[in-house]
Amino acid sequence: MNIQTKMAHGIRVDFDGPYTMSIDGEPVGSNDTFEVYNPATDEVVANAPSATREQVEHAVAAAKAAQPAWAALSWEERSAYVTAYADALDAHKQEIITLLTTEQGKPRHSMATVEVDYAIYWVREVAKRRLEDEVIEDTPQHVVKVAHTPLGVVGAITPWNFPILLGLWKIAPCLITGNTMVMKPSPYTPLGTLRFGEIAQTVLPKGVLNIVSGGNDQGRWLTEHPDVSKISFTGSTATGKKVMAASSANLKRLTLELGGNDPAIVLPGTDYEPLIPTLFDAAYGNSGQWCIAIKRLYVHDSLYDDFLEDFVAYAAEKTVGNGMDPNTDLGPIQNKMQFGKLKSLFADVREKGYSVPLGGEIDEDRPGNFVPITVVDNPPKDSRVVREEPFGPILPIVRWTDLGEVIDDANDTEFGLAASVWGPDRDAAIEVANRIEAGTVWVNEIHIHGIDIPFGGHKQSGMGVENGREGLEEFTNTKTYMFAK
Ligand code: NAD
C-alpha cells in the first residue's frame, strides 16, 4: 500500500515505497512482510519486509566483509562519509519527519520535527569527534600509549518511541570509530529506519550500514550471532536482560539503554509557576512515551495544593489528537500493546479509587490509540502508577513532607535512569541530587543532552553510556602499547 494514499491533513511523503531493507548496499525485500499502522487512525500505512534468517546472516557477513577497509580509512575519511550522510538525511528531512509522525504518532510540527532535526545535527557533530591515542607514560626507559581500536560488527536494536534519534545516536559513533553495523528497528516503527538506511546507501560504501526489519526474532538472531562483537540496545529492561543473556556466548560488548521511572522532586519555596510548562512537557512530551519522562512528581506539602490546581489548569488546555494536525499537542500511544498496558493501569487507578483531577477515562470508541492527559492526585507509594513505568500521558503527583523520606522514595525502584530536583537554593538542591541514584540528575533544568555529555542508566536502567567520549569509547577496544626505549 502506498503511504501517500493514507496521508492525513494533506501532508504527504515524497516517497512511494516499497520500503526495503539495506543489505550489502542493495535494497532487499522479503516474501514475508508485516503491516505497519498509523496509530492515530488504525490504518495500515505500509507493508515492511520481515528478514529471513538467511538475510540476517547475509547482512552480518556484508558488515564483516566491509569492516576492515572501513577501519583502514583515516578518521578524516570516515568523517567525510558520515558528514555526507548527514547532508543526505538533511535533503530528505521533510519526508522523514512526515514518515515519523505517520508511523509513530508524534506531532509533526513539534516533536517529530525536533527529533529529526536533532538526529541529523547529532550525526554531523559526531562526525567531528575523535578518539586520539594517549601517551600515559613517557620515561627514559619506555613509553605507554593507550589507543582505541574498532570492535568489528555492531548489532543495533532500537525501540519505537524515538526511532530516528535513537537509531542515528548509534550509527554515527559506531561508524566514526571504524565499526560497521547491522541495525534492526522496532517492528512497530520500521519505516523511518528502512528509509534512512536506503538513503545511507547513496553515500556510504556498501556493507558499512545494513538495516534488517522484522519482529523480535531478528533481534535475537543478532544477539546470538558469533560474528557480532557488540550489541547497542535501547528498549525495555525485560528485553535488555534477554539481550545480555544471549550475548554471553561470545562475550559481546554491550550498551544497554533501558527503562526508567524518573522522579522529580520540588523543594519548598520553589517559584513553581514559571516551571509548569517545563514540568508538563518533561512528563507528557511524546505522550509520556519517553524513557526519561518525569514519571513521578514529588511536590512539597507547603506547595502541593496550589501546585496541583495550577498544574491541572495548565494541562487541561493541552490537546490530544492526530499528529498531522498542527493544533495537536500530544499524539496517540504508538501501538496496541502499549495501549493495552495503559488501559490496565487506568483500570487499576479507577478500581483503587484514587483522586484523578484530570483525565482518567479512555474513550474506547475513538479510532486510534488515544489516551487523555491524566493526573493522579497523591496515590499511595505502592500503587502501580507510582511503581511502574507507565509510558503514557499519566502522571502521579505525590505530596511529601520529610526530605529523607522523599529521597528514599525516589530511590526505591529498580530503575536509575534520570531524575530532577527543583528548588530556590541551588546548593541545597544539588545536595539532594547527590543522594539520588540515577545516571543523570538535572537541577532546575531538565532533558538537556549533548554530543559530549555521557548518558546512561544506573541499576536496572542499563549498562554503559551513549554520547560523550565514554560513549565513543564503548564502540572500541582499549589497546595498550608499551615500547622499550
Ligand atoms: P522492547 O524491549 O519491547 O523492544 C526494543 C527492541 O528490542 C525492539 O526492536 C524489539 O523488536 C527488540 N527485541 C525484542 N525481543 C528481543 C530479543 N529477545 N532479542 C533481541 N531483540 C529483541 O522495548 P520497546 O517497547 O520498543 O521500548 C520501550 C522501552 O524502551 C521502555 O522501557 C523505555 O524506557 C525504553 N527506552 C529506553 C531508553 C534509554 O535511553 N534508556 C530510550 C528509549 C526507550
What would the keywords be for this entry?
38% helix, 485 residues, six-stranded mixed β-sheet, 2 domains, Aldehyde Dehydrogenase, Chain A, domain 2, binds nicotinamide-adenine-dinucleotide, Aldehyde Dehydrogenase, Chain A, domain 1, 22 strands, 15 helices, disordered N terminus, 22% strand, alpha/beta, globular
Describe this structure in words.
- The structure is a single chain.
- The protein is an alpha/beta fold and 485 residues long.
- The strands form 6 sheets. Strands 14-15-16-13-12-18-19 form a 7-stranded mixed beta sheet, sandwiched between helices. The chain has a 6-stranded mixed beta sheet with strand order 9-8-7-10-11-21, sandwiched between helices.
- α2 (75-91) runs antiparallel to α4 (108-126) and α4 packs parallel to α5.
- The protein has helices at residues 53-72, 75-91, 93-104, 108-126, 163-176, 191-200, 216-224, 237-247, 276-284, 301-316, 336-352, 384-387, 403-411, 426-434, 468-473; strands at residues 21-23, 26-28, 33-37, 44-49, 134-138, 142-150, 153-157, 180-184, 209-211, 230-234, 253-257, 262-266, 294-300, 355-358, 374-377, 394-400, 415-416, 418-422, 440-443, 458-459, 462-463, 476-484.
- The N and C termini lie far apart (68 Å).
- The protein folds into 2 domains: 4-258 and 461-484, Aldehyde Dehydrogenase, Chain A, domain 1 (3-Layer(aba) Sandwich); 262-450, Aldehyde Dehydrogenase, Chain A, domain 2.
- The longest helix is centred in the first third of the chain and has 20 residues, at 53-72.
- Helix content is 38%, strand content 22%.
- Residues 1-11 have low confidence and may be disordered.
- It contains 15 helices and 22 strands.
- Bound molecules: nicotinamide-adenine-dinucleotide (NAD).
- Nicotinamide-adenine-dinucleotide binds next to α7 and α8.
